[in-house]
């Protein structure tokens, strides 16, 4: 094994979305395997780290949970800079949170200023599928939106019941690692890059 493949990679992942969609809950479920019914608004931003294996490489994910309230959006630039992946979260039971996804995506691209915005790795999560009877955003609608933005990987999750959370973050880590590896790009090392359609569609269920 070469030295470069042994070195630890730090990936900065930003979670964005309206207040109350479950950003903090998703992060806590993934990192700490915990869920709390007590809703507490995130002030500014907070982050947790988790070491994960991605294609036989040890990766440290630094997951930033940002406040959904607009009055904190001015804090954005420092948090967004250097991000390797951005997760857009909405609540399946509140249409407005889905409709605001364009604004969150645009805001991120403006603040983070990635060199290749068209190919920046986003992942979309529709949270709270444990509340299926109250659903207002059909999966087809969300998948069509993801497709129109360049086949963004799409997951439906329940932070409460730990449904699809692990799988979603595994794809988030892979897409972020794909961005890290672009210079120099090592073909075949991650499922992201040369075959975007095939690789990305695999995470869309």
Secondary-structure map:
Layout: H1 3-6, E1 9-16, H2 23-32, E2 45-54, E3 57-66, H3 76-80, E4 85-91, H4 95-99, H5 101-112, E5 122-127, H6 139-148, E6 154-156, H7 165-180, H8 196-201
Parallel strand pairs: 1-3, 1-4, 4-5, 5-6
Antiparallel strand pairs: 2-3
Please supply descriptive tags for the structure shown above.
Rossmann fold, alpha/beta, 205 residues, disordered C terminus, globular
Strand proportion, as a percent range, falls in 15-25%
CATH architectural group: 3-Layer(aba) Sandwich
Find the structural class using helix and strand composition. Answer: alpha/beta
Overall mean confidence score, pLDDT:
80
Major beta sheet summary:
6 strands, mixed
What's the arrangement of strands in the largest beta sheet? 2-3-1-4-5-6
Distance between the termini: 34 Å
Low-confidence stretches: 183-205
- Total helices: the number is 8
């Amino acid at each position: 094994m070469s030295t470069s493949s042994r070195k630890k990679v730090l990936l900065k992942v930003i979670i964005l979305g309206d207040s109350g969609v479950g950003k903090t809950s998703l992060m806590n479920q993934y990192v700490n395997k915990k869920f709390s019914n007590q809703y507490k608004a995130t002030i500014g931003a907070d982050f947790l780290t988790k070491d994960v294996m991605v294609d036989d490489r040890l990766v440290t994910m630094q997951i930033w949970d940002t406040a959904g309230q607009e009055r904190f959006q001015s804090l954005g630039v420092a948090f967004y800079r250097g991000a390797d992946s951005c997760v857009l979260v909405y609540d399946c039971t509140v249409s407005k949170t889905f409709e605001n996804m364009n604004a969150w995506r645009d805001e991120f691209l403006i603040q983070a200023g990635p060199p290749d915005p068209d190919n920046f790795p986003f992942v979309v999560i529709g949270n709270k599928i444990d509340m299926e009877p109250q659903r207002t955003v059909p999966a087809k609608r969300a998948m069509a939106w993801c497709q129109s933005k360049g086949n963004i990987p799409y997951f439906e999750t329940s932070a409460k019941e730990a449904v699809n959370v692990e799988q979603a973050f595994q794809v988030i880590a892979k897409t972020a690692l794909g961005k890290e590896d672009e210079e120099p790009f090592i073909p075949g090392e991650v499922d992201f890059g040369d075959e975007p359609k095939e690789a990305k569609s695999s995470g869309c269920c």
